[in-house]
Each structure stands twice: as structure tokens, then as C-alpha cells.
Design goal:
- With 362 residues, this protein is an alpha/beta fold.
- It folds into 2 domains: 3-223 and 288-358, Glycoside hydrolase/deacetylase (TIM Barrel); 228-286, no CATH class.
- 44% of the residues lie in helices and 19% in strands.
- The strands form 4 sheets. Strands 1, 2, 3, 6, 7, 10, 11, 14 and 15 form a 9-stranded mixed sheet that branches.
- Helix 1 runs parallel beside helix 3 (60-79), helix 6 packs parallel to helix 7 and helix 11 packs parallel to helix 12.
- The longest helix has 20 residues, at 60-79.
- The chain is globular.
- It starts with a strand and ends with a helix.
- It binds zinc ion.
């Protein structure tokens, strides 16, 4: 029988600039989320942002309560058969707590630190993995940290960070969002050329956006829904109802012509290429955020996968603990998933092991 494995990943963190209270942004919403997941038999994988935790440890007098809550919550997750895997925001490495607030440089360089420096990447991953293993194996002897999500999805340039992960026994990355492109104050990355849609693959150590069947790294792209940027613009300007399937196909044709022009200009050098790509890349993707997306969109996306040929399908959903406001939406989503007989909940650790075996090295 076909199986659709559902993995709920939750980036467990306060704001990237250090703002926000841990108890409000992580602890309280996550307690509620775990309570609801338990009722429906779902499994939550907390992507614990360890650099914030290590920064709090530098000020035990100020943060003793938050440190205790952090440790208690991760333990609870493991005791109740959920999961905790690794998430790192290296901008915290220079964090100082002064005048009641966190201060640190918050630039593209800091965000991409682990991508640019193997030694730092290895050491930060090692320290975090050791902490997670030491503290969580006590509650479940099978616990292991084998999966990673980069802060800001920043996995490019890839070779330092992928090597640091593999050298620490972490073989699954789940940072890639098909279609994501960024060029600005918060760094550069380009995940627009990923070939597959919503499918795990062996990712190149040099560039996780590319497939490499001989790589030890497996990539779980976060599931996306696709929408058409040009079509969307037209629909916005003229209103939905004016468009029949005929006029849509005209727009599609125009887009194909633009794409053909674009492919003739890709040798023009990176900067020009990037600008052209940005203008004419015809598809946009939105990742499936189970705190922000309409649950019916997620459910229809899962239902569409039932028609696909593969016997094992993986759905990796993302959310942020700080966005968990509408618990009814989450309940509605879980009720819907529980009515699809093919669906099965896995932790990220379980999914990493399963799909690592399924997508064998070639
Ligand atoms: Zn994050």
C-alpha cells in the first residue's frame, strides 16, 4: 500500500534579531502544540536553535528560568515520542546581553558563517549535537541527532557546512525550499534550479540545490505549493473572472517565449543572469507552513500526492513556534490528515533513516 509520511518540523526559536521572550515565543506555544499533536497521534520534530540556548547559558542568573523551561520541554518532547533535531543561527555566536536586550551583528556574513568556515561549522555542530545526545538519550535510548536545518535556510555555499554535518554524523538536511532566492542584507542563496518537486534527493556536497547520487547527504526539501507569478499578476490586475482557459494558455505561451529568450542569455555573467532570472522565472513557490497556511491548502496538496506513482511519499511541513496562534487550524489539519488512510506520521529522525535507505547511493 502507498504510504504518505508526514513530518511536522517546528523551528524552535525567538526572533532572528534576538527579540522576543523565550516563554512566549517557544515554550508556551510549543506546549500547546505538543498537547494537540498527542490527541491526534501526530509527531512533532522540534528544530532546536541551540545557539540561543548556549547564549542564555552565559547569563545563568538572568535566564535560569528560560534555560530550565528549554531543557524541560525538549525532554518532554522526547519522552512523548516526538523529536528534537538541530537548527543553528550563527549570528548568535557574538551575542551579548546588555541593557535588557540581546545585541549582535546581524549581517549576511554572520548569517552565512557556517557556510564560509569549516572549523567554526564543525565545532558548533559538534557542540550542539553532543548536548542534544547527552541530554536526550536519557529519555529515549534510540535518540540520535541526524538532521539539520540551517538558520535562514542558508546552505550555500554548501561545501563547508555539508562536510561539518557529515563529519558529525548528521546526514539529513532539511533547509532547501524549491524556488527560494535571496540576495540582500540577509545573504545570498538560490534554490530556484532544484529539479524535483517535493521529493527527497541525494544532495551535492558542493551545492545542496543540485542532485548528486553518490553523495552521503540526503536533502528533504520543505514541501511547497506552486503558483504562477505572471498569471497571478494578471489575475490580480484584471480580476479572476475575466480569464477563461483560452486566455490563460495565451499567457502560458508568452511565458514560454520569455523563458526561451532567457535561456539564450544565461551566459551573460552572474549578475545579469540573476536579474533576468528574477524577472522571468515563471514559477513561484510557497512553503507549506502549518501555522500560517490555510489547512485546506495543505490537505489538498497532500491529497494530490495520492495520485503519484511512488509507494513512499514524504511531506515535510514547517512552522515556527512563535507563529502558533490558531490552534483550531492545526486541529483541522490533523483531523483532515487522519482521514487520509495513506498518511502516517514520522519524526524527522525516523524519516531521515527511512529515506536514507530508500534513496540509496548509486
Ligand atoms: Zn530559524
Amino acid at each position: 500500500m502507498k504510504v504518505i509520511d508526514i513530518v511536522f518540523t517546528v523551528d524552535y526559536e525567538i526572533h532572528g534579531n534576538g527579540q522576543g521572550e523565550f516563554s512566549d515565543f517557544c515554550y508556551r506555544p510549543t506546549e500547546l502544540m505538543l498537547d494537540i499533536a498527542n490527541v491526534y497521534g501526530a509527531k512533532i520534530s522540534l528544530m532546536a536553535e541551540m545557539e540561543h540556548y548556549f547564549s542564555m547559558q552565559l547569563y545563568p542568573d538572568i535566564f535560569y528560568k528560560d534555560i530550565r523551561l528549554f531543557e524541560a520541554q525538549l525532554s518532554r518532547a522526547i519522552k512523548e515520542n516526538h523529536d528534537v533535531q538541530l537548527h543553528l543561527h550563527p549570528q548568535w555566536l557574538k551575542a551579548r546581553y546588555q541593557n535588557g536586550r540581546w545585541e549582535f551583528p546581524y549581517t549576511a556574513n554572520e548569517i552565512a558563517l557556517l557556510c564560509n568556515n569549516y572549523e567554526i561549522a564543525f565545532e558548533r555542530v559538534r557542540k550542539s549535537k553532543d548536548w542534544l545526545t547527552h541530554n536526550l538519550q536519557y529519555y529515549n535510548s534510540k535518540y540520535e541527532c541526524v538532521s539539520f536545518r540551517a538558520g535562514y535556510f542558508q546552505m550555500q555555499p554548501s561545501s563547508n557546512i555539508t562536510r561539518a554535518l557529515i563529519d558529525n554524523g548528521i546526514f539529513c538536511d532539511t533547509s532547501v525550499v524549491k524556488g527560494l532566492f535571496r540576495s540582500g542584507w540577509n545573504g545570498n542563496l538560490d534554490y530556484r534550479d532544484i529539479r524535483t518537486l517535493n521529493r527527497p534527493y541525494r544532495a551535492s556536497m558542493e551545492n545542496v540545490a543540485l542532485e548528486d547520487k553518490s553523495s552521503p547527504v540526503i536533502e528533504f526539501p520543505i514541501n511547497v505549493v506552486q503558483y504562477d507569478i505572471i498569471l497571478n499578476k494578471f489575475l490580480k490586475i484584471f480580476g479572476h473572472t475575466k480569464y477563461t482557459s483560452d486566455s490563460i494558455s495565451k499567457i502560458q505561451k508568452m511565458k514560454i517565449e520569455q523563458l526561451q529568450q532567457h535561456s539564450q542569455t544565461t551566459q551573460m555573467g552572474y549578475k545579469v543572469d540573476t536579474k533576468i532570472k528574477k524577472l522571468f522565472h515563471p514559477k513561484k513557490y510557497r512553503y507549506l507552513d502549518f501555522c500560517q497556511e490555510d489547512p485546506n491548502t495543505i490537505l489538498s496538496s497532500i491529497k494530490m500526492m495520492r495520485c503519484e506513482d511512488d509507494r513512499n511519499l514524504l511531506v515535510v511541513l514547517i512552522a515556527h513556534s512563535k507563529d502558533f496562534v490558531f490552534s483550531n487550524q492545526f486541529k483541522h489539519l490533523l483531523e483532515g490528515i487522519n482521514q487520509i488512510p495513506e498518511c502516517n506520521y514520522l519524526t524527522l529522525r525516523e524519516a531521515s533513516r527511512k529515506y536514507y535507505e530508500l534513496i540509496k547511493l548509486h
